[in-house]
Amino acid sequence: xxxxVESGGGLVQAGESLRLSCAASGRTFGSERMAWFRQAPGxxxxxxxxxxxxxxxxxxxxxxGRFTISRDNAKNTVYLQMNxxxxxxxxxxxxxxxxxxxxxxxxxxxxxxxS
Length: 115
Hints:
The protein is mainly β. The protein has no helices and 10 strands. The strands form 2 sheets. The protein has a 6-stranded mixed β-sheet, with no helix packed on it. The model has no long low-confidence stretch (mean pLDDT about 95).
């Protein structure tokens, strides 16, 4: 049974940084394209960034240059380094494969950015 556990969220001020982690268990994820998604209050969950097994990454335009996705296959963990945070980054952040498997969604981690 696959389990994805997100952590690292919190309350920060605009301009500060956070590093999110996603620990995966139940199978090895080294060959999977993994991604981060986020869901802001009252909005649908949307794609933020993805990383392929070879390390190649893709970002939504709104986070390019500020967020960096990375992975440690030995630890079955995916990270999201978020710098220069903005109030519009406030959301619950989730990880999943890309495209997502609906049975894999975890609880997410809340990121709140205050002005």
